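Entry for the shared binder. Reason: the reviewer on the internal report wants the predicted structure included alongside the sequence.
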Amino acid sequence: MQLRIAYLCGTMGWGGLEMNQLKNAIWMMNRGHVVQIYGRKNSPIAIAATEKNLPFIELKKHKNHYDFIRAWELFRLLKLNRIEHLVIRGTFDQSIAASIAFMSKRKIKVHFFMEMDFGSSKKQFFRTWRYSFFTSWNCPLAYLKNQVLENTNYNPSKINVIPSGLDFGTLSAIDKISARKKLDLPQNTFLFGITGRIDRKKGQLLALEAMLKGDFNHFHLCIVGDQTANEFGTYVEELINFTRKNNLEDRVHFLPFQSNVAHVFSAFDWTILPSDSETFGMVTIESMACGTPVLGSNAGGTTELILPKKNGLLFETKNSNDLANKIDFILSNKLKLDPEKIRASVQKFDHNTVCEMVEKLLLS
């Protein structure tokens, strides 16, 4: 049965939330459903949707709360386009989406796909009232579902676990020698790697500090990524200055963002995820999909994704000593995990499986 789905994205950002919204829209369109994206003019998702030949409908900026004029304008567009389901991911869009459900007398079903964990209780009356207009609340991992149960008054029967998906077909892992040659990385060394946005909360400095504390100093570290947009210098310079001050320049390799992440993960022996916390670490899934184990911070969704000694290891969050100890453990035991078993551990995140779950939800 063909579904008519609108994906609303009222932000001007371009992070995991917006990317997941776009990816799911593409996948559902490719599965034969009528899909439209609604968002701000000249926003990153508008540009990306146009490049991917997705129908994009331009909206004016709406307020966080009670913007009934913009809600009415959006409702008329959705009704005109015979939309049945409205998908949102950002909390910024919750108020206007709830208004759409109210104005349509719930004929337009609103589905919230949670991307960020809770920092506090959300049981206030106005939030409870708003959430009551959502047809479903969908969490990428079980620990987030527990957060919703504990911190909201939302109907438990409408809370689901539907992960963010990954198109495994886009990740063509290559042999380690070829990958390192493409990235100009040293061949004959044990290489740990970090990939993602260069940001203090992502913990790159923690990994550099761990390099000075372990008993093994013959491994190298590769840091891949660009700094957070609109931030200038400070953290990147701090990382570079740290390597120089501690004579790590020969062992630490900085690379800019790489579009072919499979080549990056193929070059690593282990991926390190030293973030303060990741709601749902897409880097973790991508690394494992390439058969590369992950040494991750024991916080957030990472604890649910990593199966110790099967597809990775956990270390104590924000603790460079424990990170150094786990690196020493890997090196001293020559810990090599089976790449095929690592890949198998993340097959449930395949985008086809995820899309089937979304279809079942919407059809129900």
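Summary line for the report: The radius of gyration is 22 Å.
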